[in-house]
Design brief:
about 25% strand; globular
């Protein structure tokens, strides 16, 4: 007769640094086959995952030089409906995957020319995008400004409520068996014999593990224990955002709207998310008049009726940006160490593919083709990467 305690003892022990949507998603996928413990410096999901707008924009943001990132985003985009439904069953929370699509608004002829230039590249990638006339655009969103040049419609770029996503992932991961420790900052990755063996905390205590997944977002580079050139080159990219309060029964917008200078994301509860500035200011968390003015003016130019809305909330987030603003996914420089960080503006979009691919890599040593271009080695000199 098999001893169930023996089977549990043989399960690999995995420590995950970071309890945002990336760390929690990986924990959820790993917990059925491993003993998973997640550590976060603050409250689970309180960093970039909380600050995000929840856009799943793999198509309309595509730019030259990002072909591999577009492919990764499209892969993850295709996984989202099943991911959201599975998460609803596991957690009881609807993350509100809305599938109205996204409009990229052109207010002027110059805006239209800029969109057209990018669209030429996007169509070469066979992305499902359609240019709409001013009348067709207004038919979709009647509260837009009186004079517009049209809009690009992206029918497969959707949105989810990122804050509900955090709640759902936490519940699902815990229900699957993962242990989540909040306000437990990791000081250092423990290295013994050239292998990651766990994590050390500020008080000197150690949590032993067979593998460590570094998913600490913008704080990933600050985790000690690795040589400087092997720490993931991730920096905080500050973003200021705000939420306005619409009438949920008669919202001003139904689509995600990319306007010149801001994006606007309507929620089912009547909130209208407006974001986001892009500032290289480290971990500065101040909300500035200039940042709010920039966002509100851009929102008002696109949808003048926002001037009547109440301001519901203002906040700052720190996106984890790598040197090329693409994620760092894959094996680390030590046995038993894995990276899942640097997602920049795409953490919510890439949550499903990251969770699935990293779980396969950690447990089965399988590198999914979609994540192959995103290893740390792309930042290392050729000899060092070998």
């Amino acid at each position: 007769m098999t001893d169930p305690t023996s089977a549990i003892a043989k399960r690999p022990r995995i420590a995950i640094i970071g309890a945002g949507v990336i760390g929690l998603g990986i924990a959820w996928r790993l917990a059925g086959r491993a003993t998973v413990t997640v550590f976060d410096r603050g409250q689970a999901g309180s960093g970039a995952s909380h600050a995000a707008a929840g856009m799943l924009a793999a198509c309309c943001e595509a730019e030259p030089g990002e072909e591999a990132l577009v492919a990764l985003g499209r892969d993850s985009q295709a996984r989202w409906p099943a991911f959201a439904e599975e998460l609803r069953r596991a957690s009881g929370i609807d993350v509100e995957l809305r599938q109205e699509g996204t409009l990229v608004l052109a207010l002027t002829a110059d805006d239209q020319a800029e969109i057209a230039q990018r669209l030429e590249f996007q169509r070469r990638l066979d992305l499902p995008l359609e240019w709409l006339s001013p009348a067709a655009t207004r038919a979709r969103e009647p509260h837009l400004a009186g004079k517009i040049a049209g809009a690009l419609f992206s029918p497969q770029d959707h949105q989810v409520d990122n804050r509900k996503l955090v709640q759902a992932l936490r519940i699902a991961a815990a229900a699957a068996g993962a242990t989540i420790h909040e306000h437990r900052p990791v000081e250092e990755i423990v290295v013994q014999g050239g292998r990651a063996r766990g994590v050390r905390f500020e008080d000197g205590t150690i949590a032993a593990a067979d593998s460590v997944v570094l998913a600490a977002g913008a704080w990933s580079r600050g985790i000690a224990g690795l040589p400087p050139d092997r720490r993931p080159p991730v920096r905080p990219v500050k973003g200021q955002m705000l939420a306005l309060r619409m009438d949920a029964a008669a919202p001003l917008l139904s689509h995600v709207l990319w306007a010149p200078g801001a994006y606007l994301v309507p929620r089912r509860d009547g909130r209208l998310i407006v974001g986001g500035t892009v500032e290289e200011k480290g971990f500065d968390a101040t909300i500035t008049a200039g940042g709010m003015l920039t966002l509100l003016e851009a929102a008002w130019r696109a949808v003048p009726a926002v001037e009547e809305l109440l301001i519901d909330e203002m906040w700052v987030g720190h996106r984890p940006g790598s040197r090329d603003d693409a994620p760092i996914l894959g094996r680390g420089p030590l046995d038993g160490l894995f990276y899942a960080t640097g997602h920049h503006r795409n953490g919510i979009l890439l949550a499903p593919v990251t969770a699935d691919a990293m779980a396969r890599l950690v447990l089965d040593d399988v590198v999914e083709p979609a994540i192959k271009p995103f290893g740390l080695e792309r930042f290392l000199p050729a000899q060092a990467a070998e």
